Amino acid sequence: MMFNDFPVQYIEPVYRPPSEAKSFILPVTNGCSWNHCSFCSMYTDVQKKFSVRKESDVLTDIQRAGEQLVGVSRVFLADGDAMTLSFRRLLTVLKALNHAFLELRRIGAYCLPRNVARKSVEELTELKNNGLSILYVGVESGDNEVLTRIKKGETAETTYSALQKIKQAGIKTSVMVLNGLGGQVLSEQHAVNSAKLINRAQPDYLSILVLTFHRGRQRFVEAFGGDFAELDSKELLKEMHLFISELNLNSTVFRSDHISNHLVLKGILGRDKPALLQAIRQALSPECELPTIALRNI
Ligand code: SF4
After folding, report:
1. Which of 17, 206, 253, 258 is the most buried (most CB within 10 A)?
2. Are 82 and 212 within one domain?
């Protein structure tokens, strides 16, 4: 990609998944329409208050980007839940992107399960046929008590239904689960029920991130109900071990290589399940020095 006078004016901060590092980031909304998850501070700044960008502004950005940027093969639709747009508006954006970038191979976006509830499989399939190839869904947990306490606004069932619909449309699913999200009180049920949900959904990609408080923990602890006790490094790994041991996946790319992770793991599940579990047991052995820090405040 070549950058001249960049065709998009971003409202910072802008987030995207690590795998979209080389993508052209196109904001179609600002912020997140839900914005209640107690662990998430991505869009809490005043300038990130949720709004849908004017269609004409988005189309102008696409046209200018098509004229100025060379070699764009990937596009990520920002911000937190681009899929909140109506089917018609999404289709208009996708068609414009395909027209502007002849080398375009893949379009991705974050997606809340509720975004999908309002779209049919036929509509999602039409979006797929116009280039929408991967959706990133923050599952966070498959345990309904955890989901309630973090104010996710979703249940294991609503998340499963969304992932099923996305798959039926032929769009790839990349899901995130948050290690440590249930604290000590709900750790076991968080791990077991998250694995149950992931087993049902059989996503294409699965990432584990660690619960991290970027702007302090007070908001999260208050929402959780007061009995939140965070996991230390070894407890986080024990929870991850339980989670992976409960997984029964056919062919899912697995990663725990985010900056928040205390142990970097990569593999294909189920093929690499024994090796991943062995690596965690090794990290938990008395000879292995893990950092004694609990949750990071970064
Ligand atoms: S849905 Fe995603 S972006 Fe929105 S508040 Fe929750 S975690 Fe943050």
Report:
1. 206
2. no
Residue nearest to atom 5 of ligand 1 (CA): 35
Residue with the nearest Cα to atom 4 of ligand 1?
A: 35
Ligand 1, CB cutoff 6 Å, lining residues: 32, 34-35, 37, 40, 42-43, 80, 112, 138
- For the chain, the domain total comes to 2
In a domain, 119, yes or no: no
Element (H, E) at 177: strand 172-179
> 10 Å Cβ neighbour count for 218?
10
Task: Give the mutation target among 42, 150, 214 for probing the ligand 1 site: most ligand atoms within 8 A of CB.
Answer: 42
User: How far is the centre of ligand 1, averaged over its atoms, from the C-alpha of 287 (Å)?
Assistant: 38
Residue ranges making up the domain that contains 230: 137-298
Helix (H) or strand (E) holding 254: strand 252-256
pLDDT by residue for the chain (298 residues), tens only, comes to 444 578 899 999 999 999 999 999 999 999 999 999 999 999 999 999 999 999 999 999 999 999 999 999 999 999 999 999 999 999 999 999 999 999 999 999 999 999 999 899 999 999 999 999 999 999 999 999 999 999 999 999 999 999 999 999 999 999 999 999 999 999 999 999 999 999 999 999 999 999 988 777 888 999 998 789 999 999 999 999 999 999 999 999 999 888 788 888 999 998 999 999 999 999 998 877 665 433 333 2
Buried b (16+ CB within 10 A) or exposed e, 80-117: bbbbbbebebbbbbbebbeebbeebeebbbbbbbbbbe
Ligand 1 centroid – CA 286 distance (Å): 37
What does pTM read for this prediction?
0.93
